Predict the structure.
Amino acid sequence: MKRNIFGIICIILCLCLLLSSCGKEETAGEGETNADAETVEDTPVIPEEEVKETFEYTLKDGEATLDKYNGSDEEVKLEETVTVIKKKKEKKTVTETVQNADGTTSQVEKTVEETVEIPEEYTLTAISAGAFMGNESVKKVIVPDSVLTVGDAVFQGCTALEEVVLPKGLEKISDRLFYGCEKLEKLEIPETVTTVGLFAFGDIFNPSAWYANLADEDVIVGDGILIKHNGTSEKVSYSDEVKKVAYYAFYGTPVTEVYFTNSIEDISDLAFYRTGATVMLPAGSSKISEFKAKSITVDTYSPEEAE
């Protein structure tokens, strides 16, 4: 009898051990399944970077200067009036109804402080150097007539730029203004422009499409600025209309002598790049020494020789 009882106890112990082992295997299996499943880890919160405004301005004395454009629009129309909302704290007196202890009500005045928004308007008068530089999205920019100054290299490297509307009163096309803007095709130079800066429309290796497509024999813009000569003659004469000659104006032409009148005010030292041409000035011209100082070959002529 004792042997039977002992045998039964052994069987029960074996069953318990077997069940315990199965439970561990199932648990291990569940662990393997979880390991294969997608896990979500706690990620430390990274502070957000300060979001840049689309337009960054300098505001002073009622005038605004556009310092930087940070947007990605294809067309940008700059507004003549820049409105800035400023917040100001003001104190005011208000009347409140209060409940008295005897159940009656009374009107009580108290002073409170509140924040109010006040719009301030500024006139856009200038665009800082490099304001759009390197933008790869913008295709068209419209600059209002209130802008009097457009800095150097404002649109340099704008590889998608196709058209720019300049303000009617602009006086200077700044250095490298459209440098690297190969796709630029539409551009009108205001009649008020008196200066065209160095490499304003690119260089001989990388001109804008607008400059490359100028096909007239002589392209004179603004207030008498000769920016490109496409003629085939060796001897060229100009009237009082031409006051200045821009860089590379005669590059790639066979010109050897170019006659100017006393109206000529300035000639870029790169105007006759790789031509070896001689600038012919009226005898006694006040510009002879100035142009020679720029390493421009200069000679003089009497009025009848220019015929």
User: Anything to note?
Assistant: The chain has a mean pLDDT of 86.
